[in-house]
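Weekly modeling sync, notes
Attendees: S.R. (lead), two postdocs, one rotation student

Agenda item 3: backlog of single-chain predictions. S.R. asked that every request posted to the team notebook include the full sequence so nobody has to chase files. The rotation student volunteered to paste the first one in as an example of the format we agreed on. Action items at the bottom.

Example entry:
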Amino acid sequence: MNKQRNVFYAFGPFTLDAGERVLRREGQIVALPPKALEVLCFLVEAQGRVVNKAELLDNVWPGTFVEEANLTQSIFLVRKCLGQEYIETLPKRGYRFAGEIRIDEPAPARRLLLPRRAAVAAVILTISTAAASWWYLSRSAPIRSIAVLPFSNLSGDASYDYIGDGLCEELTHALMGLGGVRVAARTSAFQFRGKNTDVRKIGELLNVAALLEGSTRTTGNTIRVTAQLVDARTGYHIWSETYDGNLDDVLGIQQRIGAAVAGRLAQDIPGSHLRVPAPSREVSLAYLRGRYFLAKGRPETFRQAVECFQEVISKDPKYARAYSGLADTHYRWALWESLPPAAAFAEARRAAEQALALDETLAEAHASLANVKFQYDWDYASAEREFRRSIALDPNRADTWHWFSHLLTAIGRFAESLEASKKAIEVEPFDVPSQNHLGWSYYFAGDYDRAIEQHRKVLELDPIHGQTRLLLGRALLQKDMFGEATEQLRKNLELSPESPERIAALAYACAVSGAPDDARQLLDRLLALARQRYVSAYSIATVYAGLGAKRQTLEYLDKASAEHASRVVEVKYEPIFKKLRSEPSFQALLERIGL
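Predicted structure, as returned to the notebook:
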């Protein structure tokens, strides 16, 4: 980047000497790192033009491979120095200098006549500022909490997203074994994927002192991973490193990053040690792909997840976490009404038990087995023991608290269920399913106002999440807010037109809001779908309940219990069925289910 001689740019209280690369505020030199100053100069010299990231990287770091994180950090430092109003971010376009600029071209003598004492003072000021920054960092409080952010995929090929996501998940899992360090849950960290959020703001929201972030760039069979550890309290970098290798080196790179971060954190917490993941290099990519597809949480990705976990097991039959992933995938398949419960839960049971046979201390496997015992076996006491064992091994799994809350609601322990639901949010404050589950807990506790309030908050956080409008619509119906409830449930069905649960929810809403013909049309659609694939009898029963068809409702609830439909455990306290609670056949149903 060529320097422009003898040009001064003035904006607000600042003056930027473009030739000498010196920034002053009301005459006093302002200390900025060289690259941050270069970024500022380039944006100022663009004079209001939008500059994309690639142009900035090419001009400020010419001929050098650098990650966008370097640019982001430089922008952060410039904003910290000038204030937020001068540098504008235009999403998907770049940055623009937004201040009003005055240009001055002073005579050459202006700088030649600068007294030597003033020049020396400026140098001393710069050195003093740097020394003060070093002293502050060296004396800052120990780092006892950290979040691993998703690694950015800079390859330009979305098919490689799973590598960065997998690194995030595996590093999070590994660092959880570092004694004395609290690690933010993966789901909370993933809320900041692709967002240009100030690292200090992320640290504040996640309540952590440090962030581990990075990027991957994959070309053919080669990969470059850049990682950096940032103090979220100050925004300063603590450590950074770049790793080059082949795709089958991903696990080794992950372990080297984990060891480096653990080594840095161990300086603050003597005696801490890192639990190193066990899979071989040959299976690591398959396992990362499996977790990537499972995390998407859609029925169509579950099959891909199963294939990946089975590939891992075929190559490393003793890797317990692969069996746990397989168990999670199968029981979720049943919950999403994508497979008959008998087949799905049988596979989930086998996988969870195998995971525990290999590693009895694996918290996630205990939670998987707990869900089988709860949702399919109706063995509530054994399920509670497994959930509590999972929590004792790892109290920072929001998913475990979430499903434990489901169990507590099913057996009528509403106060404990609410506490478990709140604990899930405490562990993962940005996890949409956990936030939705709190509203679900209020719904079953009969507190519909709080349920509605909670789901409205979640809708602002994520307007397209699969369960939010569904749960909001159900709560609105209990307040006789039929118009809004139906609107929410229609929008929800539009997001997934083939979902039996969503078809049933809208049909029920139509039935109770005075549109029985619409409800019957949706019921016909649901019954037609049931002739093509598995549809839970529980979903069909809810539609008949809305239509006031008592006999058919009880008939389909009996079918739901016979097939061990996943949601049948909710039947006792589901307000949709409250008019049936005094029926002898309904009481007999509860007895069969163990409620």
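Discussion: group reviewed the output briefly. Confidence is low (pLDDT under 50) at residues 1-5, 106-139.
Action items: rotation student to repeat for the remaining queue; S.R. to check formatting next week.
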